[in-house]
Each structure stands twice: as structure tokens, then as C-alpha cells.
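**Protein fold record**
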Amino acid sequence: MNPKLSGSLRILLITIPDALQLPTSNFNDDEDDFQEFEAFDNDLTPRGFAPAGGSLAVQNVDMLRQRNSPKHFTNEYDIENLVVRRGQQFMMQVTFNRPLADGDDFQVEFLIGSNPTASKGSLVVVTFGDRKGGPWEGEIVEHQGESVILGITPTANAIVGKFRTYVAVVAGSGMQRTKRDTSTDLYVLFNAWCAEDAVFLANESERREYVLNDYGVIYQGSLGSVVNRDWIYGQFERGVLDACIHILDASRMPIYDRGNVIKLVRKGSAMINAQDDSGVLVGNWSNDYSMGQSPTSWTGSVKILLQYANTGVSVSYAQCWVFAGVFNTFLRALGVPSRVVTNFSSAHDNTGNLKTDLIFKEDGTPDERNTRDSIWNYHCWNEVWITRQDLPSGFEGWQVVDATPQETSDGHFRCGPASVKAIKEGLLCHPYDAGFVFAEVNSDLVFHKRDRFGTLTPYRVETDLIGLAVYTKALNGNSPVDVTLNYKYPEGSTEDTATMTRAEEYGCERDHSEIPDNPLSVSIHAEQVPHLSVLLGQDVSLQVNFTNRSISEKTIKAHLAGSIVFYTGVTSNRFKNHEFSVTVPGTETITQVIPVPSQEYTPHLGSQVSLNFIVTGKSEEDSVTGIKVLNLLTPNLTVQLSGRSRVRHMMYMTVSFTNPFNFSLGNVYMAMEGPGMMSYRRRYYK
């Protein structure tokens, strides 16, 4: 049998209902609304005589979805109800039993959550005459016989969520209301187009990218081998907006806090992970995903959010890019400008200082048992755009928020919003969690030797190996944009020195050990054989360069450790231990080539595709250490469309994969989805 496996999957792309039931909000819909007729107190009397023509009554209410949605940039939401953005006028049409006359009085009422009250902003009364109403503005825009077109403007700090709508006619002894009608329910979102909204973003191209784009690219791998992962945010797909509101309901977040973007994104950061609050996603950084789906199998956020909203059970499993992708959908669905960023060589500092401590045994091998800090090949988080009225001027703009459960913040696994500008300046006194993010991009890497008594002696400090680059998706394109200088000044610059000094003043501890000058250094370079690209399943050639800056010859006893590592830097399997010696003449560099055949590492890979090589060496007086993380590139899928691409017409998609390895593949899953065209689908090949 030919060990190669090639195959193709032909899929018919048609619009079909998702198998999952569409979610509805629970706590938000636990209403006890007003009665249809509400009598006035006995001491109240009518303002004047009843107008001629009989009592006024409401015949119909139309939220004018087709007219309003394009102006509010919400026409893409696959929802029957009207979706608007706060701080911006929308229209609604009310048809009465007769034309309005002088003396007629009516009002529109918007209610959200259970027990709505005007003092909390969850009951809003809009009036259209001299009588004072609530904070939302209302005006009669047009008379059309028995109908009137009303213009209503929610405040720029209105509660975000799903409102119930009523029209009440003021009669002599009370008010007569319309019946409960779910078709008139109104979704109110944050508004990046409104200058008074806390999420106002002035640039139109950025608004279209960071609020309206339902597709993105998340960057993974390592700086020398960046990998693109496509992600379907799908914030406009049917059920997704309700699912995001359900997340807030499940968190029991007070309704009246949901207009505060800082509180909302902080709550969302906690709820996207399930670590301590039964949130959306369960994190798993192992090779065992038998109780759920592997994090690498997800193609977008839609299935995850619908599954959580319909079952109430946390979805398994996620790693940082999944947390970031789903959080980005949550934010954009609610109108918050957001983007996913990737920090390459990201420090996870368990001790809360600016030192990432790597510990080695006396023989130079890594002491994994006693090393608590780790360096992630990459880490994905989110940025949100907020004006930050709670901070001094100058700290508005992009703020870091992170849903990956790493450390607790105020008792919950969450992070942010932390001002990127404050992080760059080292002003870590400002909330929230700026110190933790600062360490992720600025930690010093400290190498320690541990003797048999447990004493640690630092022998090397690297200040430029953490936070090598921060990438995000470009506007109107899929290429990466380097935003590292948003987070930090160039290494070693005067501004960088000042930033680090300020960070220490605010409690971030750095290493100030006096390390003697070391004339020896080592670097590792990897080259694929016979290609320059690093391809999974091929042999690797390591070039280890030892440099001697002294004038005397040095003989170095060296050790190479090769491991399969999770992208978090944690070792999965050790596959290579190699001892060797090299003599380096004074002021010269000697290269030692070490082959790594594919059969040495492929049996240990599991779901990981990162190799970590550590070379440690020691002469009579000096010690050296070099680290190389090698991210192996995986084969691509080929996607081809056939048939005419026309709305409401069938077309075909052929997805093919050719196995490049010299062994058969088993238990293969292929997953795909397309926003607006097809829901998440998964195919299994035994």
C-alpha cells in the first residue's frame, strides 16, 4: 500500500439553518413589565380637555429596520430586530387610530432587564412635547396621516443590550400601553462613530476594520517563522449577538453597569475563560483533548458562542489564540473597536517582577523542576480602543485586555484594560494590570546555575530577548503590522532606560546582579535540509556558533538538549541529549554542525510543532547558554471554488490535502466554515 495519503473533500455551499437552537437572553428577559393600563394617582388630573375625534390608541409600531440599519452600520446583523448604536438618532413609526391632534400626549418606553428603574437607566421614557421625559431625546420628524415618524436619540452612555419597547398613550385617568411585542425589541450597541461615546474612533478605515470586519488573521509561530491562522469572528451571524448578551447575563453583571465599557470589557475578559466563573472556554495546554476539541480544530468563534449560549456548559478546549479570537467577536458584536495582537517571545512571569528566571543544573542541563517562569513562543491578547476618562489625559487609545487565564486580577482570571501608552512609559500605577503586561514585553531573561545545595548564582542577563515583536493584522489586508513601538522604546535608548527606571519606582523588580564580562558567547541557527524553510517531517541541521572574544584559546565542554515544547515554553518531550567539546582560538568563531534527523523528533511531536534547543557550555572560567526555538511549518490545504458565485445559488468548494510524509496519517479531521454561507462543519477521515 502506498503510505502516502491524498484526498479531497467536495462541499456544497448552501445556506441552511444551524443545528443549534438560537439563544435568547435569560436574565435580561426575566421581565415583569408594566400593565397595559396604568392608572394615575387619585390626585392627578388631566392636563386639558380630550381632543375631538375620540380616544387616541396605538394601532401599530414599526422600528423601520431597513431605514435605520445602514445609517447605524448594523445592516449586516442577521437579526429580525432593529440594532442601533447609542448616541445616534434612529427612527420609528407609530400608527394611531386617527391623526394626532392638539392635546394628544403619548410616550415611548424602553426597558431592559428585570425590575427596570429610571434611576438606574434601565427604564427610559421618551416624550414628544413640553412634558419632561428621560435622558433620551425624542422628536416628531414627520406626520403621515394617522402615522408619525419619531426620531429618538439614546444617550452616548446608554446601557448596551436588548431593550423592550412600548408606546403609551396618556389618557384622562392613566396610560394605555401597547402589548408586549418581541418584534419591537431594540438592541443598543456602543458607537465608535459618536464623538461622545467612550469608544469613539475617529478614523473611518479603522472603524470598518476594528468594528465591522468579521474576518481576521491571527499570527502564531516564532519571529523567524510567522504562521498565519485565519479566524472567522462572525459577529453578525445569526444568534451571535444574543450569545454575547447571554454571556453578560450568565455573569450576573448588573444591567446598569453595561453602559460602562471599562466594566464591560473587564467582565468579558473574565467570562471568556471558564477558570473561575463557568465562562465560555476551558483552557487546555496538554496533548489530551479527548473530552472536547483540540484548540487547533476551531476555525472561528460562531460555533463556540452558540454552543455555550444554548447549553450553558463551558466549551472544550482553547489556547490563547482561541480565547483572543472569541473575545474579539464578543467585543466587535457589542460595538467595541478591537483587534487581536500577538507578542512574540512573551514572558509569563509567575513572581510578578521584571525577571524571567531560567535555572540550570551544575552540568549545564535545564533544571525544569525548579524553573517556574516561562517564555511563550508567542502569546495572543486583544486591544480595545477606549478614551479612558478615568485616567489622566494622554492614556486614551488602545488598551490591552486578555481573556487567557494566566494570573488573577481582583480575584478573577482576567487582565486589563491596561493603557498601551502607560505601558510604554512605565507608568504602572494606572489600572488595570499594567505591570503584568509590562513584564510580558519587557522582562529581563536571567540565567542561573543551581548548585547541589539549591543556591542560585546568576551568570548571564539578556535584556532584549523578551517582546521581540508585537504584530496585528493590517488595515484592509492580511499582512502583519509591527506595533512593537507602541509598547516599548528601542532597546537601550535613553527613553527605554527612563521607562525601566519608572517601572522600578512603581514596584517592578529588576535584576541588578553584577555579572562579570564573559568573553564567550554562543548562538544557534537552524537550517532545513535540503530547503531553507523549516518544514515538518524534514531533517534539520543545527549550526552552533561559539565566539571567543579573548586573546587566549578556550576549550568548551558543551551540551545540547532538544525538546518538543508547547508554545508556552513548557517541555512536552525530551528527544535529544548530545555532549560535545569544541576548542575556540582567541578572537575567533568556531561553528559546530549538529544534524537532527526527522526520525528523532517526529515520534514525540503529538499536537506540538515547536522544537526547543538549548546549548550550554563551560570552559575553565566561563559559562555560556544559547536558546533556539524552531517552529515547524505544516502542509497547506488547497481550496478551490467552482460554479457561479451568485447570491442564493449553489456553488461547490473542493478542499484538498496531500500528505507530504513517508507514513500514513490516521484519525484526520478537516473543519471549515464561511460567514454568511455555511456554518461550522467537520469531516472525519479514519
Observations:
- The chain has four domains: 6-15+637-685, 31-189, 204-505, 520-631.
- The chain is about 15% helix and 40% strand.
